[in-house]
Amino acid sequence: MRAIRRFTVRPVLPEPLQPLTQLATNLRWSWHPPTQDLFAEIDPEAWQAVEGDPVRLIGAVEPARLDELAADSAFVRRVEQAAAGLATYLGEPSWWSRNVEEPPGSIAYFSPEFGVTSVLPQYSGGLGILAGDHLKTASDLGIPIIGVGLLYKHGYFQQTLSRDGWQEETYPVLDPDTAPLSLLRETDGRPSLISIAVPGEAPLWARIWVAAVGRVPLLLLDTDLEENAGELRAVTDRLYGGGGEHRLLQELLLGVGGVRALRAFSRITGTPAPEVFHTNEGHAGFLGVERIRELTVAQDGPGLDFDTALEVSRAGTVFTTHTPVPAGIDRFPRELIEQYFAGNSPVPGAPVDRVLALGAETHDGGDPAVFNMAVMGFRLAQRANGVSQLHGEVSRSMFNGLWPGFDEEEVPISSITNGVHAPTWVAREVFELASRAGADVSSDRPEVWDVADHVSSEQLWSTKRTLRERLVEDVRSRLRTSWRQRGAAPAELGWIDSVLDPDVLTIGFARRVPSYKRLTLMLRDPARLKALLLHPEHPVQLVIAGKAHPADDGGKRLIQEMVRFADDPEVRHRIVFLPGYDIAMAQPLYPGCDVWLNNPLRPYEACGTSGMKAALNGGLNLSILDGWWDEWYDGSNGWAIPSADGIGEEDRRDDIEASALYDLVENEVAPRFYDLDADGVPSRWIEMVRHTLKSLGPRVLSTRMLRDYVEQLYLPAARASRTLSEPARAGEFAAWKRRVRDGWDVVHIEHVESHGVADSAEIGSSLQVAAFVSLGELSGDDVAVQLVHGRIGPDDELVEPRTLLLGVGESWAGGRHRFEGSLSLDRSGPFGYTVRVVPRHELAASAAETGLVRIA
Ligand SMILES: *Cc1c(COP(=O)(O)O)cnc(C)c1O
Question: What Enzyme Commission number(s) apply to this enzyme (predicted)?
Fold first, then answer.
């Protein structure tokens, strides 16, 4: 029999235990081990059974046990103390309140996935984990961020293996009533709903769940409502589930619906409205279109015109691009966008041709039939960044076509390297070790890491062993579960008791399985890998995990290849593939590994963060110089696998890189690990661990990342947005852009004269330059005429050029001007220059703001 209706009966806690409700629903417990301990104590067995989920624990404990605890004054006191501790955390003065003047009211952070804790499985991999770490860190630092995402009924998927190693997916339902979420309600108690017009009669409705991530609210939109007809109910069914139209509906909901949800949230709770909108990857890009719509409809007076609204919205928008892999960028058929935005548009009033133009691939090689979400992201955000220095470079090159006429270095995409949230990812034992040695582990001053020098080698080594041993136990238990699930009988599984060895060098490799991450590179020469695993004196053991996207059969084949290798009785005690990679598996995995392996196809790993988490736990990275590792590898904080990235032929490249990997493990990594001194400690290894902690610790933290975002992007965006919130300023800026665009065709440099140096010059001599420029209708104040100068490369191109602003010397009728200036030559060697004209305005964020340029 099926129930015709369902609801959830919430447990009632005895009065003295009621503070547990807030302790369970505020996700701060997920990075606060003492709160976890408190819950575990309520019922250790139930705590295991609910996989460390406080809300489910409260529902699972017998009422008699709760009454018993309510009568236990020592326990009640601890509950009160924990609640007081949370209240202090939520209210205490923060980095933000101490450091930021004239702070923006709030900052909205949009992301298609959020990986906060494994009990809220709303993530697929690094992008989501990063978003989770971003919110937690914002909470720690007191940054007034509001997260915006979707609540997927089935999350991503749960991964299991078939008998022969093929990935299988299941989609358990997440019941929001038993999750750490509360429904946003209007003051009269009804759920607050938002709607979006979509083709057809009925709009798309969504309710808004709120997760409390410490001080930070996370709004999650959910379409699983009776109000929604048919298909529309399933818009938020799965993360990255459907393609095409389903994906577009999700992204409209996230972007357009997300802004509407923020408005409802502010209205109901009184939270100040966001002044900055940050889109984590392009999926939420429609938020810019919705903000333009808001500004174009009359509020107290006439609304703004589209261009003016675009400038206002752009000034406060930040776009972070996350991948140089084309498949990671959403592209919709232009016709589909047309179908949605003409007629019954989600953003009524925004002309469909203007919307289409925002996502048009106008660059060389672009596809006119496609609407590109990344391209729209750049057009709708005045500030954009990549997620490591290398990825910044790669992105500037990749998107250079959107700013033709500008050299790569001037493409307005900066970079902020990702970081990780230490309280989530660093093992307790590591924090305790540092505290015992006198460090203030709550501080994020770089000097804190000097503590690595004050911990004895023996202590460090024995802590690593403890962590390795814990990992070995976790691996065995997960492997047993997986084999039972694959159909093995318990009696066949005795061998699992001796899988892995807590004294063997342990290498971890866990990540999603897109092809560029090359899960199976280590299998390139299976005999060689086997020899490394079974080495008589210096064996290594490998823990491997990762999910392939359900539609990616190629990825599933890689997993199967890996599983088949690991199933071999000859090596299965030294190599395991664990299904179901998630936060819960990752937390003991990083600390338990001695070495963290990463071998992507350079430069496709935009940043990578798992290696950072390993490093914070004293793991050494062994990685291709890609993403963050390209930036911070210093020659002695780990190993660089030489990359053959000049070689186009993939097979040969894989051969070369795999063989370099085997060599490194065999000749450098393993011998060092097993080289014990008289005290039984591998002192040269420990030296590297210390150096890793000191060199990487201060850099890889998400507190560093968040401060960078605040200083380099959020505050400048908030300032720009405030300036433009005066409609006259915005209108003037938009009109200026229009005027410059309209008048640009006739702008040209007639000729350039120079004096002071002939064919050769000495250091210190001065070069006088005069450029005769015709500006047509534009004035000398509308443009910057620049002398662009620098060293000369082999093809006469300027290498790392610098610019000198030329001033107006004389003007003539017909818009002709002489611009002039002089430059003192301060570097020897081949030197060259040119002159260019770019539009100039104080509200522009870079010389490339309009994309217009004229070069001599
Ligand atoms: C950190 C983390 C990732 C991201 O790892 P990358 O190195 O960026 O690939 C993915 N999944 C989980 C569970 C993580 O904790």
Answer: 2.4.1.1
Angle, vertex CA 764, rays to CA 759 and CA 768, nearest 5: 60
Mean pLDDT of 129-141: 98
Q: Which of 670, 697, 724 is the last residue of a domain?
A: 724
Closest ligand 1 atom to 611 CA? 7
Q: What is the pLDDT of residue 758?
A: 66
Tell me which residue of 625, 628, 626, 632 sits closest to 664, measured CA to CA.
Answer: 625
Instruction: Give distance in angstroms: CA of 114 to centre of ligand 1.
Output: 12
User: Does 390 lie in the same domain as 272?
Assistant: yes
User: What are 615-666's pLDDT values in tens digits?
Assistant: 999 999 999 999 999 999 999 999 999 998 888 898 999 999 999 999 999 9
> Are 471 and 324 found together in one domain?
no
Residues with Cβ within 8 Å of 680's Cβ and at least 6 positions away in sequence, in order, are none
Please indicate, yes or no, whether residues 275 and 385 belong to a single structural domain of this protein: yes
Q: Give 13-38 pLDDT, tens digit per residue.
A: 999 999 999 999 999 999 999 999 99
* Distance of alpha carbon 198 from alpha carbon 283, whole angstroms: 18
CATH at residue 491: 3.40.50.2000
Taking 80 as the threshold, does the pLDDT of residue 732 lie above it? yes
Type of residue found at 748: H
Q: Does residue 697 contact residue 616 with C-beta atoms inside 8 Å?
A: yes
**pLDDT at site 10:** 72
pTM of the entire predicted model: 0.96
Asked whether residue 261 falls in the same domain as residue 162, the answer is: yes
What pLDDT, on the 0 to 100 scale, is given for residue 301?
67
- Tell me the average pLDDT of the chain: 95
Q: Measuring from atom 4 of ligand 1, which residue has the nearest CA?
A: 126
Structure tokens at 24: 């369970």
Q: Structural domain tally of the chain?
A: 4
Closest CA to 421 of 21, 20, 27: 27
Q: Which segments within 111-164 are labelled E, that is strand?
A: 145-150, 158-161
Same-domain status, 108 and 82: no
Domain range for residue 33? 15-91
Asked if residue 687 is part of any domain, the answer here is no
Give the span between the Cα atoms of 529 and 520, in whole angstroms.
Answer: 11
Gap between the Cα atoms of 382 and 845, Å rounded: 7
Instruction: Classify 802 as helix, strand or coil.
Output: strand
Residue of the CA atom closest to atom 1 of ligand 1: 610
Collapse the DSSP code of 168 into the 3-class scheme (helix H, G, I; strand E, B; otherwise coil) and give the result.
Answer: strand
Q: Do 320 and 465 sit in the same domain of this protein?
A: no
Supply the pLDDT for residue 796: 84
Cβ 638 vs Cβ 700: under 8 Å: no
Which numbered atom of ligand 1 lies nearest the CA of 583? 13
* Cβ(636)–Cβ(688) below 8 Å: yes
586 Cα to the center of ligand 1, angstroms: 8
Cis peptide before 404 (omega within 30 of 0): no
In this prediction, residue 549 carries a pLDDT of 95
Question: Whole-angstrom Cα distance, residue 733 to residue 782?
Answer: 11
CA 824 distance to own-chain centroid: 44
The residue whose CA is least distant from atom 6 of ligand 1 is: 608
Opening angle at CA 136, ends 135 and 138, nearest 5: 60
Residues with CB under 6 A from ligand 1: 125-126, 129, 511, 581-583, 586, 608-610, 613
C-alpha 128 – ligand 1 centre gap (Å)? 9
- Nearest-atom index, ligand 1, CA of 126: 4
Mutate to test the pocket of ligand 1, among 597, 610, 628, 629 (most ligand atoms within 8 A of CB): 610
Q: How far is the CA of 637 from the centre of ligand 1 (A)?
A: 20
Which of 120, 156, 609 to mutate to test ligand 1, by most ligand atoms within 8 A of the CB atom? Answer: 609
Summarised one tens digit per residue, pLDDT across range 678-722 is 999 999 999 999 999 999 999 999 999 999 999 999 999 999 999
The answer to whether residues 163 and 80 belong to one domain is: no
